[in-house]
Write a structure and sequence with these properties.
Blueprint (H helix, E strand, L loop, with lengths): L1 H7 L62 H4 L6 H42 L2 E2 L9 H7 L1 H6 L6 H4 L1 E4 L2 E9 L2 E9 L6 H13 L9 E8 L4 H4 L5 H14 L9 E5 L3 H7 L1 H4 L2 E3 L8 E5 L2 H7 L2 H10 L3 E7 L17 E7 L14 H17 L4 H47 L3 H26 L1
Antiparallel strand pairs: 1-3, 2-3, 3-4, 4-5, 5-10, 6-8, 6-9, 7-8, 9-10
Helix pairs in contact: 13-14
Length: 463
């Protein structure tokens, strides 16, 4: 009875009462000791009790040893294979580029070394630097006259200019009957094999893309009686006397025409690319090899130009010759009347030999190159044909000029018609602006009726 009373009225519980069983989820923590506060150690530990956190190397200054400071222990060469591949690729590209540019440069210099004696003999100025000025020692040893006549060229770097890695140019002037000559060498893109292979592949599938070829293109511009306009002279009375004398003694002019010797492999492409050659007729000649043909405006012009020297030079050059063109017409079809003015030129295109270790490889094309330069002398002295021959040549040019005049007149007529319409519209708008609203309505109705009558008349005529 006493136990029940204590239970309901909060009596003191027995000390021997059983401890409730712990939850099964926290059984792992049941035997853990109660946490006790950690003792605070001194800020500065004694030297005896201090221990290094990491092992150090003997004799070091206390820097802990880790693999971070020794890259050879935490990395290997296999971890850098991507970087190694990139470096190898860049090295290969640089080596190919250097090899290609140096090979092209060496080939261009070899060509110039083979042709320099001819240019030096025919022209007073070669390249972009002129001739070397004779030194004092040369004048003392050989005299001033011989030192000047000694055909020493200028710095070779100034004779042949590298325009791009595959294009080299040079220039020559200072010759009778020749104003100047431009020479260009087009070589393979050896420094970029991917582009070179792509050009070969596309040229195989598409006719519009030409096959890559190494060639020399030379363009000679004759004086054609214009020495007074092209060669500078001194001012004053002396200059005027020289000018008058040049006009009287000028014999460099010749009749204009289009004539060519063409390799049959490139004849079709040449006719499509050049307007001047498209004016000619094609005919084989018994004096020429089977692979070459003549494109001319007159047979008399062909017999005059096809000399034994030229035939021999063409045979020696072989199929390296692409074309030799004498022309006075533009390359592209003229679209305006001022583009039909004759401009006489002589063009030569020769493929370069594939293997050119020395200048001797150009021995077969040197006679043709020499004849190309001296053609201006032959033309100036004898290229004056009968009136019947030139009448036929001029007839072709006159027909083209008439077509251009017709197109030009039609364009001018259209322009005049537009101007008249513009004036009429301006006059109508001014007249309409001065009318009242009712008058404007009647004016517009009359215009509408007039347009209707015109349209009905046109429909009647068509019916």
């Amino acid at each position: 009875m006493a136990e029940l009373f204590n239970k309901f009225f909060g009596g003191q519980q027995s000390a021997a009462s059983p401890i409730p069983t712990a939850d099964a989820d926290f059984a792992d923590f049941a035997g853990a000791p109660d946490p006790s506060p950690a003792s605070i150690s001194p800020l500065t530990p004694s030297a005896a009790s201090a221990q290094p956190a990491f092992p150090t190397v003997a004799g070091s200054t206390g820097i802990p040893y880790t693999k971070w400071y020794r890259i050879w222990e935490r990395k290997s060469l296999s971890d850098f294979w991507q970087e190694g591949f990139i470096l190898v690729f860049i090295s290969i590209v640089m080596v190919i580029h250097l090899w290609g540019t140096r090979t092209n440069r060496r080939k261009a210099k070899t060509w110039f070394a083979a042709h320099a004696p001819i240019l030096e003999k025919e022209f007073a100025l070669i390249g972009f630097g002129g001739r070397k000025t004779p030194s004092f020692e040369d004048i003392q040893s050989s005299g001033l006259a011989k030192a000047i006549e000694a055909d020493e060229l200028a710095n070779p770097e100034e004779l042949l200019k590298e325009k791009t890695a595959q294009e080299y140019i040079t220039y020559a002037s200072g010759r009778q009957n020749v104003a100047f000559v431009d020479i260009k060498l087009n070589l393979f893109k050896r420094y970029n094999p991917l582009t070179l292979v792509g050009e070969y592949v596309f040229s195989f599938f598409f006719d519009s893309i030409p096959k890559p070829v190494e060639r020399m293109e030379a363009t000679l511009y004759p004086f054609d009686g214009k020495e007074a306009a092209l060669v500078p002279i001194k001012g004053g009375k002396q200059g005027q006397d020289i000018l008058e004398q040049r006009k009287k003694n000028s014999t460099s002019g010749y009749d204009g025409f289009v004539w060519a010797i063409v390799n049959k492999d490139g004849m079709r492409q040449l006719r499509d690319d050049r307007y001047d050659v498209s004016l000619t007729g094609t005919k084989d000649h018994p004096k020429l090899p089977n692979w070459a043909t003549v494109m001319s405006e007159s047979s008399e012009v062909t017999e005059f130009l096809l000399t034994p020297e030229l035939v021999k030079a063409v045979e020696e050059a072989g199929e390296l010759l692409e074309y030799l063109v004498i022309t006075d017409q533009p390359l592209n079809k003229p679209e305006k009347l001022n583009e039909t003015i004759p401009k006489k030129r002589i063009n030569l295109s020769i493929r370069l030999p594939s293997n050119t270790p020395s200048s001797a490889a150009y021995a077969s094309t040197l006679p043709l190159f020499t004849h190309f330069i001296r053609l201006s002398d032959q033309l100036s002295s004898s290229a004056h044909f009968r009136p019947e021959v030139m009448r036929k040549v001029r007839q072709t040019r006159d027909d083209e000029i008439k077509k251009l005049k017709k197109v030009d007149d039609e364009g001018k007529a259209e322009e005049r018609a537009r101007e008249r319409e513009k004036e009429k519209k301006k006059e109508r708008d001014g007249k309409l602006g001065r009318l009242s609203a009712e008058e404007q309505r009647r004016f517009l109705e009359k215009e509408r009726e007039k347009e209707m009558r015109k349209s009905n008349k046109r429909m009647t005529k068509k019916g």
